[in-house]
Amino acid sequence: MDVRRRFPQSAAAANTEDTSSVGGRIQASDALPLPIRHTNLLFSALFAASLVFLMRRWREKIRSSMPLHVVGLTELLAIVGLVASLIYLISFFGITFVQSIVSSHDEDDFLLTPAPTAASPAAAPTPAPAPAAAPCPLLCDGSPAPGKMPAVTEEDEEIIFSVVAGKTPSYILESKLGDCRRAAGIRREALRRMTGRSLEGLPLDGFDYGAILGQCCELPVGYVQLPVGIAGPLVLDGRQYYVPMATTEGCLVASTNRGCKAIAESGGAASVVLRDAMTRAPAVRLPSARRAAELKAFLEEPSNFETLSLVFNRSSRFARLQGIQCALAGRNLYMRFSCSTGDAMGMNMVSKGVQNVLDYLQGDFPDMDVISLSGNFCSDKKPAAVNWIGGRGKSVVCEATIKEDVVKKVLKTTVPALVELNMIKNLAGSAVAGALGGFNAHASNIVSAIFIATGQDPAQNVESSHCITMMEALNDGKDLHISVTMPSIEVGTVGGGTQLASQAACLDLLGVKGASLESPGANARLLAAIVAGAVLAGELSLLSALAAGQLVKSHMKYNRSSKDISKASQ
Length: 570
Hints:
Layout: H1 9-14, H2 36-63, H3 73-93, H4 95-102, H5 107-111, H6 154-164, H7 173-177, H8 180-195, E1 228-236, E2 239-246, H9 252-265, E3 270-280, E4 283-285, H10 289-300, H11 302-313, E5 320-329, E6 332-340, H12 347-364, E7 369-372, H13 385-390, E8 393-402, H14 404-409, H15 415-432, E9 438-439, H16 443-454, H17 461-464, E10 467-474, E11 479-489, H18 501-510, H19 522-548, H20 551-558, H21 565-568
Helix pairs in contact: 2-3, 6-8, 9-19, 11-12, 15-19, 16-19
GO molecular function, one term: hydroxymethylglutaryl-CoA reductase (NADPH) activity
Protein name: 3-hydroxy-3-methylglutaryl coenzyme A reductase
Membrane topology: Multi-pass membrane protein
């Protein structure tokens, strides 16, 4: 049963003078002081009656050769009723469609907007918001007395019952209620009643659910808390960075921090970004392999690249086509487009450019059948040799020379032991395992922790963790040269989860929040270099622990709870 959102008397009084606040926002269903189902029925009947009356009147005028623009009082009232009912019905039933358009964000908007600062002229003072409506009891953190459930208002109870009964889809609660936080609370209570499980321990309050609407997460019922540790300072390219890492693995941050210390005491690390290009590879099918080969030749012809670039680059002010790599499988053609995407990670941007090119190609190849915008030759969120060899996102190399005394005092091992271990474990061991891009000790650990802390797509850890760690002795075996080569780090500093408050704070700590106005893409490239530098520190520390035989001891110290489990379970 659909029920219109209502507010407590105190909240309604507080919002009498300012209906623009969230608590007092006017809804389409507030047109009449009736239950929403009765309001809908009334306006539907008014629309049908007005339309039928006007159609009959206009038919009579046409038959009697009367001008249509001459209207009487009854016709005028019918026109007003038709327009009013039409506006109401579009506002009510079209709200979900309108919401999806309004809440969609083009990556270009983020790329053109600098990160706000305290000294920025754009940070003009804003008027104090009006008092918010009283929160729904479902959203309160206060724990009820044992055996008692928190009080639920009559309006919320009706909505919960409708969701549980399947009459109201859970996914429309935000658009129907106009309050993302309240919608999450109602959805959570409906889930509790349907499953019999309370989700105790999963927090609900303290999160801005409006910030994720239409871009980060659907059907929210709470949020997961993750601790964030800081490793550093990481001395990279002459600058210091304190690296945020969100993880639940004990010893990870401490180990990375030790690697950062060893790097800093040896003069720091250096990095270079070799390539910066996001990819998308659609799959198309043609009538024959010969015809597919003709399309392949057309795409790879240098004289056609300029035209294809112009078509592709129309999708964004920052997307710039760099190249097209083609592969055939029978009469199927896979076209891997590579393009720069500014400070955005760029998957949406490159996808729009690819769609433009596909539409253009249909003119010369009308027999081309587009099977999928993504044909897995990209390759996204899957281990693939094409990323390992050709790169995807940012391709970065980071290196450092660790002094002999630092190896002994900080890392508690020796240079020959580290070189031998790296060859036997990371190179030979990974080869025996048939690894694809996994010639390292634990690059994925560091990449995942930084990705989660900074709002990156955690699933892209798969290819972003491709890494080969190299070690060799220098200066007659006294010093250690270590490097990590990571061909496909996929990061961005605008769009997606990077704009959430916690993740934006972590990006700001690194100095890469938002878009770079001086050099588009500079912030994203710096973030990729920091990720590689942190991986370098993590590899150095873990391999040292293995060489010194300290791995088990350190994990027993930092990765085991000292709490009394028997008491904690009671």
